[in-house]
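Q: Sequence in, structure out?
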Amino acid sequence: MAVVTVFSGSYCGGDEIVQQVAERLNLNRLDEKLFTEVLRRYGVSAEKLISTMAGRIPLMNKITREREKNIAYLKVVLAELVTQDNQLLHDFAGLLIPRTVTYVMRVCVIANFNYRVSRLMSVENKSEKEAQKIIRKDDMELGAWTKFLYEKSPYDESLFDIIIPMQDTSVAEAVDIICENAGKDAVMTTPESQKAAEDFKLATAVNLSLVEAGLDEEVTAIDGLITIKINKYVLRLEQYRKKLKQIASSVNGVREIRTRIGPKFTPPPIIPSEKLSMPSKILLVDDEKEFVHTLSERLEARNLGSSIVYDGEQALESVKQDEPEVMVLDLKMPGIDGLEVLKRVKREHPNIEVIILTGHGSEREQALAEELGAFAYLHKPVDIDVLTDTMKEAYKKINEMKEELKRKQQDDEEQ
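A: Exactly. Output:
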């Protein structure tokens, strides 16, 4: 019987489906076992592991490497657990298993946004706005995880063997689909797939040894041959290669080690382009506290520090005290709404570029925001790359204005 992993969007019936599949197929649940074993071996709590998979980066991560270590711990334990048949994992961690382990059947349970909002409202007696907040936050966390692992959105078809759309499928039908496919030859254990699982196990052990030494490179294994892909630029490449090989060779089962340059191994420019193309002062304004904190963390992961306020009054006060260069502004807020904040900011601080980010906007409000001087008008949920690209364009405009002002001042001095 296959190992089944289920990656589920929130409020799609995932828990109920998983429970019924486990009972019908008599599968062992790995969810708690995975977290318990990581805690026992490495002292990392389930809460910290879940936080890691939700994309939250610890404050001192560049020093502690906590995130990388947590992922390495998960991989090591998971690789050992999935070497046995008849297992079921309902967790983000299932995406850590490589596609080469073919007896693992990867299932995605998802539904469209409106279905999930309606389901949440009925189950938890939430308002529509509250439900939308929760779903957006959940999807942002899922997206942070799949983006980190594969540079893909959370429900990308290439990540799964089966995708079940719950707005068109009952729980009973979803269970039938999973159980039927779990018995097919394509996901049966074979000597080749067992060997791939053992290779995965060895690769995770090597990866952990590197991470604990402060290094984090992509590791694969085939019959004891370890390949380490170097994706981060280093000045002394040959010395770095020797160090990687020295660490990897200490792991039992390693027969040979090769290193190769990955596609991201590029020397940095003399002046990092990010320093030139991104704003140094960003203000996020949104009354959805969980959403805006998650957004701030996503930006922080891209070396974009930001300040946060939760309403229009706080925003205007923050602008007075510490004039930001770029503001990301929600429209619907208690007290002074976003359009009024935009109006006052552009009147009193015209050089601040304001990006509207809203989940409740209309064409009329968009037209009014653009008339008032908004740099861009974006809708929630927003792709973080779209937002950062928009910030780059805003800062490019700011730089051009600064250069123009400097030239005028020089011309005045010469005259």
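The CA atoms of residues 316 and 345 lie 7 Å apart.
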